[in-house]
């Protein structure tokens, strides 16, 4: 790991006795995952997953051991039901495409930003968020360089996921490391030639660059710079009811929403910063996340998500009983 691992394993739904206060805020997850950050379980599951204190963890943890969520096919075995609590990150998830040549990142491109909060999803092309200027990107670039060094990557195109918290008062202000994908992010949308050349200032063909790297050739000549007169920035803000927390997975899906979803706000300008200004009033949770503890408000959210069939992958009747049991332990 490039940073100290603050995750904690939770065995048999028993909170570890040595769990430090520094472990909070945390995010409860299964070892094999249930795609909660991708929209499965809706806002209900995301609220239940966030714990800001030991007391809140004690109140929410029984849900993850109930008959409802564990009815999911891929939570049948003890290994699949193994839980851990990871650090909870707030902010814009940055999709950073990195070309590594002979152990050194020669291109670090912030292709897209993804963020969801308070029933809204924000997707930007390229990545943009408050305060994410060149000075901040330089600091984030140093983190990317550390990741490449620690992982001993030699020749490869990798997708580094960072979480950028723009709140100056937050102890997590700046970029935090999430994970490395040994592929591009959202391959379909950002590898599309027409979309990439339009919305990214620097762009490259993944197949061609990967071939050069496989032959130990410097791929720098293959990196294309979009003409300023041709390129533009794009910011989309949609209700989660019209899309998902995972954002747009293809340019076709994005353009269909642009044409058919009047509730979505699309802004285009010569730069992504100027596009962002057009819809900044729609930006959710600028001052921080909205998280509900166990109680009537959370129960109402969960009941609504059950009616929307956002727990289609599990036994909805059992899910409802487990949620109601949280209020009546």
Write a short abstract of this structure.
This protein is α+β, with helices and mostly antiparallel strands. The chain has helices spanning 42-49, 54-60, 134-151, 187-190, 193-199, 206-214, 251-260, 272-279, 296-307, 316-327; strands at 8-10, 26-30, 50-51, 83-87, 92-101, 104-117, 120-125, 156-165, 174-181, 202-203, 224-225, 233-239, 265-269.
Given helix and strand content, the structural type is: alpha+beta
Task: Give average pLDDT, whole number.
Answer: 89
Radius of gyration: 21 Å
- N→C terminal distance: 38 Å
Shape: globular
Overview of the structural elements:
The structure is a single chain. By secondary structure, the protein is an alpha+beta fold. The protein contains 10 helices and 13 strands. The strands form 3 sheets. Strands 9-8-5-6-7-12-13 form a 7-stranded antiparallel beta sheet. The protein has a 4-stranded antiparallel beta sheet with strand order 1-4-2-3. A hairpin with a 2-residue loop joins strand 5 and strand 6. The chain is globular. The mean pLDDT is 89.
């Amino acid at each position: 790991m490039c940073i100290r691992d603050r995750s904690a394993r939770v065995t048999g739904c028993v909170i570890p006795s040595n769990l430090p206060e520094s472990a909070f805020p945390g995010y409860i997850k299964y070892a094999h995952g249930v795609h909660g950050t991708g929209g499965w379980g809706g806002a209900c599951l995301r609220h239940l997953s966030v714990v800001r204190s030991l007391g809140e963890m004690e109140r929410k943890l029984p849900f993850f051991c109930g008959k409802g969520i564990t009815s999911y096919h891929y939570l049948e075995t003890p290994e699949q039901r193994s839980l851990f609590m990871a650090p909870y990150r707030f902010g814009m998830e940055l999709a950073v495409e990195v070309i590594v040549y002979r152990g050194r990142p020669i291109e670090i491109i912030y292709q897209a930003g993804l963020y969801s909060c308070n029933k809204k999803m924000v997707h930007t092309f390229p990545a943009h968020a408050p305060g994410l200027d060149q000075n901040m990107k330089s600091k984030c670039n140093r983190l990317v360089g550390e990741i490449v060094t620690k992982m001993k990557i030699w020749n490869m195109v990798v997708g580094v996921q960072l979480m950028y918290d723009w709140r100056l008062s937050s102890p997590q202000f700046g970029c935090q490391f999430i994970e490395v994908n040994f592929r591009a992010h959202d391959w379909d949308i950002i590898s599309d030639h027409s979309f990439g050349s339009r919305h990214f200032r620097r762009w490259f063909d993944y197949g061609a660059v990967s071939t050069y790297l496989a032959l130990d050739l410097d791929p720098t000549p293959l990196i294309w710079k979009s003409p300023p007169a041709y390129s533009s920035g794009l910011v989309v803000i949609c209700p989660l009811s019209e899309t998902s927390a995972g954002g747009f997975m293809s340019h076709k899906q994005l353009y269909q929403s642009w044409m058919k979803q009047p509730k979505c706000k699309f802004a285009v300008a010569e730069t992504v910063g100027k596009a962002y200004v057009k819809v900044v009033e729609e930006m959710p949770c600028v001052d921080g996340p909205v998280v509900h503890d166990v109680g009537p408000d959370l129960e109402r959210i969960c009941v609504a998500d059950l009616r929307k069939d956002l727990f289609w992958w599990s036994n909805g009747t059992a899910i409802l009983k487990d949620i109601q049991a949280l209020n009546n332990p």
